[in-house]
Amino acid sequence: MRILDLAYILGLGAGLGLVSAHWAVAGRPAVGKVEVGSWMAWPGSGSRDVDPYMRAYLARGVHLPLGAGEGLQLIAARSDDGAPLDGRCRYRISGSVPTTRGWTLEVTDAAGRPFHLPLERASFTDAEVVRSEDGALAIMAAAPPQAGNWLPLPPESRFQFRLRLYDTPVSGQTGETRATNLPQITRVDCR
């Protein structure tokens, strides 16, 4: 009877250990995460002092982070009203972008992989977008074509916006950045 109890305890311990280790490195860790409005960032992921959970996540070969002096990647999986981003809806991305040498705005799946859309366009750069006179952004993101700056979305699926800021002072001060300094993601309507 004691051998069965010992085998049960060892099996349970090994199973819980494997499950907890997988959980710790399967997605982006909560340690070191900074949330600003609907945007999330991990400013320490490209630094020398990266925490062990982020190091394990990066060791899986999922993403190569921007270095601490290179810039910052911000990820949004929800609109400003808190609803998950959905391809059946239209979104307005508006406002300003922090001081930066350049930026890109991309649509990806939940794992960070780009979508293969019919137009082969899933991103904008700062050089491609047409701005208003005051320099503010005005991008419409939707599955059907839209007038103006249009970013195609995958129909019928969840997605993320990834905003990469290159050579920006914000990378070291993400915790001090206000939501008004980043683009707003407004859900216009859904089909």
List keywords for this structure.
Jelly Rolls, 6-stranded antiparallel beta sheet, 4-stranded mixed beta sheet, elongated
If you had to describe this structure to a student in words, what would you say it looks like?
The protein has helices spanning 2-26, 52-59, and strands at 34-36, 39-41, 71-76, 89-95, 102-108, 123-125, 137-142, 149-152, 160-166, 184-190. It has 191 residues and is α+β, with helices and mostly antiparallel strands. It has a single domain (25-190), classed as Jelly Rolls, CATH 2.60.120.600. The strands form two sheets. Strands 1-2-3-9-5-6 form a six-stranded antiparallel β-sheet, with no helix packed on it. A four-stranded mixed β-sheet has the order 8-7-4-10, with no helix packed on it. The longest helix is centred in the first third of the chain and has 25 residues, at 2-26. The chain starts with a helix and ends with a strand.
